[in-house]
Structures are given as C-alpha cells and as structure tokens.
Amino acid sequence: MLARTDYKEVPPRVDYALTPLGRSLADAIVPLCTWGTENMAEMTSIFAKRDTFP
To answer: Tag placement on the chain: N or C end, fewer CB within 10 Å?
Structure first.
C-alpha cells in the first residue's frame, strides 16, 4: 500500500508514496469521511446523550 524510497544519505532522507492499491483504499475511505462530516452534528448529539446516561 506504501512504497518507501530510502536514499541512503546522511542526513537520512526517505520518501513514501501510495501504491495503486493504497490509492484505491483512499478512494474507498473518502465517502466515509464525507458521511462523517455531513452527520457530525447529529453524531455529536447522540454521543452527548450517551455520555450523560447514568
């Protein structure tokens, strides 16, 4: 999911990049993040009620 490039330098330098598989996972997570943003107020209310329940 991640490609790591170690340049074997001093000071150390390493780059990371998403592979095609990693990008496909990111594409799958975006709708979940969008849902969370769109429903944040309602979820906050639900959690607040839950946290005050005896």
So the answer is: C
> What tokens appear for 34 in the block?
């969008």
Distance CA 12, CA 4 (A): 13
User: pLDDT (tens digit, 0 to 9) for every residue of the chain, 54 residues total?
Assistant: 999 999 999 999 999 999 999 999 999 999 999 999 999 999 999 988 887 766
Domain ranges, ordered by start, for the chain: 2-52
Single pTM value for the model: 0.56
3 membership: H or E segment, kind and range:
strand 2-6
Instruction: Show the tokens assigned to 42.
Output: 């309602």
Task: State the alpha helices, DSSP H only, in the chain.
Answer: 20-38, 40-52
